[in-house]
Amino acid sequence: IYITEEIHNTGLLSAIDMVEVNPTLGASSEAVEATASLAVDVIASSLGQTREGAHASISVIPAVKSDTEQLCL
Fold it and tell me: Which GO terms describe its molecular function (predicted)?
């Protein structure tokens, strides 16, 4: 999924061809659900959907302001 997110970030993606996805070959209903869900996730991340927690990183934690500094703002 990381790779498809990065491909989206390039802005160069113009087509997607999802091949070799056959959920009917799954041994159980859980396997069928997992296969279909993964295919949807790959396509969605290619189109810009991000995983939860994949937000911009913060390199410095802001210092806590004292009560008087907060009141002056």
Answer: arginase activity; manganese ion binding
